[in-house]
Structure formats: structure tokens, C-alpha cells
Amino acid sequence: MAALQQNNIILKSIPYTFKDASLLDTRAFIGGKWTAAASGATFPVYDPEDGKVAFHVANTSRDEVRQAIDAGHKAFLEYKRFTHRRRRTLLRAWTDIVRANRDDLAAICTLELGKPITESYTTVDYGLSFLDWFQGEIERLYGDTIPAAKADNRIFTVREPQGVVAAITPWNSPIAMALRKVGAAIAAGCTVVLKPAPETPMCAIAVAKLFERVEGYPAGTLNVVLGDAASSPAIGEEMCHNPLVRHLSFTGSTTVGKYLNGECGKSLKKTSMELGGNAPFIVFEDADLQKAVDGLIASKFRSSGQTCVCANRVFVHRSVIKQFVEILQATQEKAFVYGSVWDPKVNFGPLYSQRGVDKVAKHVEDAISKGARLASGGAIKKELGPYLYPPTILVTGEKSPSKTDEAPMLFMTEETFGPVAPLIPFETEEEVLSLANTFQSGLASYFYTENISRLWRVAEALDTGMVGARVGLISACEQPFGGIKESGMGREGSKFGVEDYTNVKSITLGL
Ligand code: NAP
């Protein structure tokens, strides 16, 4: 039915008819032209709701990535001369066009990621909030005037765009990730070659389709290259080694981030690394338990647990853990509606793939084998498709007060990236801070207390780039987003997000 009205590009029926089916394209965007791979190669994109193929998308070769970088460089030579006001006007025009197409963008996100449609709208709006914010930042990219030591010198600085930015994004929030990176780089005066994750290329393509409609950007200001897991190493190598790329901005796992950062180091390219986390969520004995449960549900279960800032290890003071579990179970049972991801009432969707399901199942089985008790969830809801893993609560440390000293369960050392909340009892503030800070990840952390001294003390003591002190949702366009340690470097969003794509040039003037 609907498939035939939609450019014949969607390979399955969906209960949504696109207002503008021309947003559906399966080609790369290079130098202002939509291009299939010269080799004719394509790769499949699946609908996670039923596991069926939804699209076949062009598989870009390394040579085509080089062409995209060349096009980005050519465009940069022109675009870098645009005034800040002109850049701002163009970015506003793109933002308006994206906003006018939010229904179709949300639908693409739901189709290729399996996100419930209401959540897809949230991520489109989250992405739009960055475009709105970056517009304002463009004209606030100030330099400094510095008092010179020499009487006949004057020193000032200007912020200049860096050049071609290669941007690599993951699948878990495809529209927001693309808008957050591309919006900031373009605001700074850079041009971009974007490589989206192979699971969600259509979101990036649609965003580029809308970019193309803005009159005034030089051709090649935004390029999109596409590749599956087999071709991404060659794409990554070109991005890391091509001298015209001046900045690699990557969001994804720590393993891949370390590799790409190492490759970029060979030619001293600037990098921004938004990597994996393993967020601790701490509930102190003086916390408002209902507030903490609400925060945990928001932090842990939104997007089915597939965000980098999701709580991963939930530490609850031993004196309140029993009560906390009861409130959590009761609240969680009422919180979620399951069903078709196209139904606006549904607020919990499938994991993105079998790979996601396997990892979650492995973490749950491992925890149970090491003594955890399954308090809810713990198995696929087959009647709702192959990848629907429900909210799962595990309670650990019930067998003996010293169980937290045992060989660590997998979730203690690895991101689960799924809807599993493992509860771990603790006794003292010192002990829990040591557990929270033990590992090399340092993206986000959360804690709940009603004690104002502890609020400051713990916020300062947590080794993460972001802290939620009595909040479970911490991402906003005006807030610096990023991690420390092996969770990465650089900040996205906020004034730092745009500054990251500029070089500070100092100019010394002789009188
Ligand atoms: P991933 O395996 O690292 O992949 C991320 C992206 O990198 C994908 O587009 C992937 O494409 C690409 N990629 C992998 N190897 C590459 C290479 N050698 N050269 C070029 N591109 C390459 O991560 P993921 O599993 O998709 O995403 C989940 C991870 O991202 C989690 O660890 C999560 O915490 C993290 N994340 C972090 C943030 C943040 O802001 N800190 C936000 C969201 C997600 P292929 O699949 O084709 O290889």
C-alpha cells in the first residue's frame, strides 16, 4: 500500500504516507550531487520492528570518500569567507526547513531505528534545538584583545574555521547526532563530510536533502557518504589520513574512538571524541525515593536503554534498597505502553538489532549466574517482534553483605546499552564513590540526595564530564555534552560545541 506511493524506495509497507517522498533517497551526496556508488554496490537497511529489509543504500568506495573531501575543501575556500551574519541567515533557513519536515523525519527515524514515533519526534526536536542554539552562537564567536608587554605592540585574536570536518555518527539518535555535529561545524564556518551508521543512513540523507534546498551554500558544504560495516574501515582510513580533513568528529564506542584518534594522531588532526559511558546512578539513604525512581526510569529506560548517558550501574544504599525495588517495580509497570511503534501512545520500542539483544541477554544471564535476582523482565517479548527486550530489573548483593566484592558482573565493566537496571547495595559514601569512579569511562553520572552538603560534595567527587544531581535527564543544547577519561574529549552543544571547530589565531600588530 503506502510503499508504492513512496518513490518505490521503501521495500515494505508501513502505516505512514510521506508528505514529501523525495526525502527518501538511497544515494550519497557528494559535491552537491546525489550519486549511487560507481561500483553499483549497495547494502541493506532493516526495520527493527520486524527485522525486514526496508531499504538498499549505496555503498560508497574510498575513492568516492576522497571526492567528497575534495568537494568539501573546494566549498570551504568559498564558505570560509562568508560573514557571520550570512552564515547565520543560511543556518536559520536550514533550521526552518528541517522544522517544517519534522513529521517525515520522525517517520524515517521510526522506520530505520524502530523508535516509537513519539520518541522519534523528541529526537528530531532535540536535534532542532541544537540548530536553534548554534545560530545564536555564530555571531558570538568573539576574539580577545590582549595587553601586549611591548609598548609598541597590540595583540588580538580571531576565531577561524578549521576546514573540512569528517563526522562519523552512531545509529542510536541519528537525526540529533547529525544535526548536532553538522550544525556546529557549519556554524563555525567549516564544511562537512558526514558518514552515518549503516543502520540509520536514511536520517542523514533526509537531513542533507533539506540542506540542499537552502539557497546560498556552496556545493559541497555538506556531503554524505554511506558504508556498511565492511566498508567503514576504508572510509575511516581516508578520513583519518586525508590531509584536507582538519578535524574528525566521532561519536561511537571507545574501542573505535581510540583507533580513529590514534590514526588522526599520525597527521595531528584535531579530533572530537564522544565515546561510550558506564554511568553510575547513586541513591543515598536520604534521597526522595520516588523522585529517584522517576529519574532512574527516565535515565535508564528511555530509548530502550540505548543512549550513551543511560544509567548502567545503579547503586542504592542498603538501608533503602528493599523499599526502592518495590517503588521501582510499581512505577515501571505503569510507565510503559507497548505495541506498534507507529502508535503515538506507545513509548517503549525494540532494540536496534539482534546484536543489541544478544549483548543485553548476555549481561542478564551473566548477572543471574553470579547471584543476581531477576525482579522483572529478562526475556524478549516475542509477540512484539524479534528485538523487543522489556525493562529489566536485577537485584544484586542479597545473598551476603560483602557480595559487592565478588568478581564483577559484566555490567560493572561494560556498557549494557539496553533496558537493564542492575541494583547494587552500598553502605557508605566513600565506598560508593570509589565504585562509581573505578573504571576508565567518565561520561555521565547521577545521584539523589536531599542533603545539600552532600549534593555539592558528591557532584564534585564524581569523575565524569556530566553529572545529574537529582535529575535523570541531562542533555540540552545549551549544556556542554561530553566525557572525560576514556569517554572522550571535546564538547558538543553549548558555546564550546561551536568553538571546537575553530582555531584561535593571534595577530600581533606593530605600531
Ligand atoms: P561503533 O561501533 O563505535 O560505531 C559508531 C560509528 O562508527 C558507526 O557509524 C560505525 O560504522 C563507525 N565505525 C566503526 N568503525 C569505523 C572505522 N574503522 N572507520 C570509520 N567508521 C567506523 O558504536 P555503535 O555501537 O554503533 O554505537 C554505540 C556506542 O556509541 C556506545 O558505546 C555509545 O555509548 C556511544 N555513543 C556515545 C555518545 C556520546 O555522545 N558520548 C552518543 C551516542 C553513542 P560501522 O557500523 O559501519 O562500522
Automatic annotation (TrEMBL):
SUPFAM superfamilies: ALDH-like. Gene3D superfamilies: Aldehyde Dehydrogenase, Chain A, domain 1 (3.40.605.10), Aldehyde Dehydrogenase, Chain A, domain 2 (3.40.309.10). The keyword Transport does not apply. The keyword Nucleotidyltransferase does not apply. Residues 34-507 form the Aldehyde dehydrogenase domain. The active site is at residue 274. PROSITE patterns: ALDEHYDE_DEHYDR_CYS (PS00070), ALDEHYDE_DEHYDR_GLU (PS00687). It comes from the Eukaryota. Keywords: Oxidoreductase. Belongs to the aldehyde dehydrogenase family. This is Aldehyde dehydrogenase domain-containing protein. It comes from Sporothrix stenoceras. The lineage of its organism: Eukaryota, Fungi, Dikarya, Ascomycota, Pezizomycotina.
